[in-house]
Write a structure and sequence with these properties.
Mean pLDDT of chain A: 93
Number of domains of chain A: 1
CATH architecture of chain A: Roll
Radius of gyration of chain A: 21 Å
Number of strands of chain A: 10
CATH topology of chain A: Pnp Oxidase, Chain A
Order of helices and strands of chain A: EHEEEEHEEHHHEEEH
Structural class of chain A: alpha+beta
Strand content of chain A: 35-45%
CATH superfamily of chain A: Electron Transport, Fmn-binding Protein, Chain A
Distance between the termini of chain A: 23 Å
Oligomer: homodimer
Helix content of chain A: 10-25%
Number of helices of chain A: 6
Shape of chain A: globular
C-alpha cells in the first residue's frame, strides 16, 4: 500500500486538512469497524454492498457464498473501492453551513483475488471471525466439508487508501460566536446491549467471558 | 420507484427470503439512517463516499460543496447506487457457518440531477437538516449568500430499490442445537451521549428541548 503517497483516487479533495494518509491511522479505522461498504462496477453500473471484512496485513479479506455477485466479481480481479465509516457525533454549529459530523472514515482501493488453498482459506475465515469477535472461532463448531465448499474468501490488495477524521467542537465563523444559539457536539456511540440467549440454548451453557467483556477498540 | 418489482440490479440473490421490496419498508431504513454510502463510476473506477442524505418523497437528496467530486458526478446524471445499512446485532450461532448479523439494509439505484432553483435548493437544505435533527434549521443562522452559492444539492430519482432485513436468534442446523456452545444475539444500538457544550458557547444559552430529547426512529 502506498503509505503517505497520494494518487488521483485517494486524494482528499474536500476539507483536505481532514485527510489522513498514514497507514496506521487508516488501519485503526479498518480494524475498529464491524462492517464496510464494497463498491464495484458491473456493465458500467455501480454497486455498493455492505459486508464484513478483516485486515490481514496489507490485504483486506471479504467472504461470502461462492455464488454471490460480490464475491464472483471481486475474485475476477476487477477494481473495488471499500469504504469504512465510523460515526462519532453530530456537530451542531451556530450557522447551518458549519454543521458537520465527527467521524472516522477510510476509503481503500485495490483489486481482489480468490483465496484458493484450503489451508489459507480456513485461516482467512478464522481472521474474519476474530475481527468480529475474538474467541468465537475456538468456541464454535468449525466448518464441515459442505459448508467450507460453499464459502469463498477473496483478498483485496490495498493499492491506495486514505482516511478522513473530524473531531472536536464546531468551527463557526468568528462573528457567529456571539449568537445566542446552542452549539456543541452530540456524541454518538455504538453500544452493545446485554446478550440475548437463544431460546433453544442447550441447558446449562453459561455466557463465555469473551462475549461478556466484548467491546471494540476505538 | 418500482414498488414491488425487481430488475437485474435490485434482485436479492443471496438469502432471498431476507429480501424486501416494499416501498415503505425501504423508506423506513432510509429515514432512520444518519448516513449513506454513495457509489459511482468514474473512468471505469468505482468510488464509494459516505454522505448524509434525506428522502424527499421518491427522491433522495445529497448535498456538498459545488466543487466536490461526488456532487459534480451525480449532477451530470450518471448512475449512482446508494447503500444504507443499520446494524442491529451480532448473531452468534453454534456453527461458525451460521454466524450472521441482524441488520436493516437498503440499496437504491437511480440517476441524479442538480437542484437549480434557489427556492427549491433552500427547501432541500432544510429537508436535509430536518432529516438529521428536526428543529435545528429554525434555531440556526441560515445560509448567507456566499455559503448558499458554495453549496450544491442533487436529487436522485430512485428508479429501483431493495432492502434486506435480518432479525431474531441464530438459525443453526438441527443437529447443532445439542452442542454445549453458547448461542444468541449481542444486540447493537446507536446511542447518543450527553451533549457536549462548545467551550465558546455564548453565556447563558440553554440546551434546547429538541437536542435534549433527540433520538432516531427505529
Amino acid at each position: 500500500m502506498a503509505n503517505t503517497e497520494t494518487d488521483r483516487r485517494n486524494r482528499v479533495k474536500r476539507a483536505p486538512d481532514r485527510g489522513v494518509y498514514e497507514r496506521e491511522a487508516i488501519y485503526e479505522i479498518v480494524d475498529a469497524a464491524l462492517i464496510c461498504h464494497v463498491g464495484f462496477v458491473q456493465d458500467g453500473q455501480p454497486f455498493v454492498i455492505p459486508s464484513i471484512h478483516a485486515r490481514d496485513g496489507v490485504e483486506l479479506l471479504l467472504h461470502g457464498a461462492t455464488s454471490s455477485r460480490l464475491i464472483r466479481h471481486v475474485q475476477s480481479g476487477h477494481e473495488v473501492c471499500v469504504a469504512i465509516t465510523l460515526l462519532d457525533g453530530l456537530v451542531l454549529a451556530r450557522s447551518i453551513y458549519s454543521h458537520s459530523m465527527n467521524y472516522r472514515s477510510a476509503v481503500l482501493f485495490g483489486k481482489g483475488r480468490l483465496i484458493e488453498g484450503n489451508q489459507e482459506r480456513m485461516h482467512a475465515l478464522e481472521i474474519l471471525s476474530d475481527h468480529i469477535m475474538p474467541g468465537r472461532w475456538d468456541d464454535s463448531r468449525k466448518p464441515n466439508e459442505k459448508e467450507f465448499k460453499a464459502t469463498a474468501v477473496v483478498s483485496i490488495s490495498i493499492e491506495s487508501a486514505s482516511a478522513k477524521v473530524r473531531t472536536g467542537p464546531p468551527n463557526d465563523d468568528d462573528e457567529d460566536y456571539q449568537l445566542p444559539i446552542w452549539a456543541g457536539v452530540l456524541p454518538i456511540e455504538q453500544r452493545f446491549l446485554d446478550p440475548e440467549r437463544d431460546p433453544r440454548l442447550f441447558h446449562g451453557v453459561e455466557l463465555p467471558d469473551y462475549i461478556k467483556e466484548y467491546h471494540r477498540k476505538k
